[in-house]
């Protein structure tokens, strides 16, 4: 392992970090990723000007991500297990996904569209001011499925590869993609490096996530697989497509389609099969993300146990 930790150690630390996140949730004040976002804004304001925007964006990415990742690696050489767990806790966002989406469900069930629109606007970039229940439910379910990969499974994957520093590098890169990876006049060149690096880091985790959604779909696994293979290629994002298509197929709902961005109606490729999403499907999407997390933890622990038995009898 790149972390220098054995698989049984990594599996134990993985469980500890996830449990810490479920117990405490994200920090209400002084969240490390919020501080990193402020740093990224300052770097972008300084470098995103003049010519050679792509090169400047790549330099900005390196300045933002590499020193912090190196510092984390050096720290784990001295602080050991504790820092690995704390880094994973700071990077993972499992409980926060629930805390950001369940209030949308509560508002929709109470018929409070105003609150549901406001809550949904906090987690998606689309315009929700005139959205009705199906559009809000669709946005919430899509956000859970996609961010299950970005905020949870990609982080877990890179933790298993490189420990706490790997999880940190992934989350910092993912955050920069979320901030800089837009195809507009301001970021098209400057943010291209951040978007491509995030695509590369997310390539394997996204497909493992999509496969996990297929497995947990049970009898609907064939539909989830079919949606993944036939619908994902139509999406511009090489990683969001497989994750959301597989997840929508597993849930048996129709996602994608029309959405308003910056006042413009966009027709996005369809996802899944079945009726339009409802508030209940946001809950089902959360359970799918949680179930996938438990699946990954069980697989990591089982692999660690088998390795330990193998080593003991070798």
Task: Report on the architecture of this protein.
The chain is mainly α. The protein has one domain (7-313). Helices cover 73% and strands 5% of the residues. The chain contains eleven helices and two strands; from the N terminus they run ααααααααααββα. The model has no long low-confidence stretch (mean pLDDT 93).
Summarize the structure.
This protein is mostly helical and 314 residues long. The protein has helices spanning 7-24, 32-47, 53-79, 81-91, 94-109, 113-121, 133-180, 192-216, 221-231, 240-251, 279-313; strands at residues 254-261, 264-272.
Following the backbone from N to C, one meets helices and strands in this order, namely HHHHHHHHHHEEH
Give average pLDDT, whole number.
93
Helix proportion range: over 70%
In spatial order, strands of the major sheet run: 1-2
What gap, in angstroms, lies between the N and C termini? 20 Å
**Biggest sheet statistics:** 2 strands, antiparallel
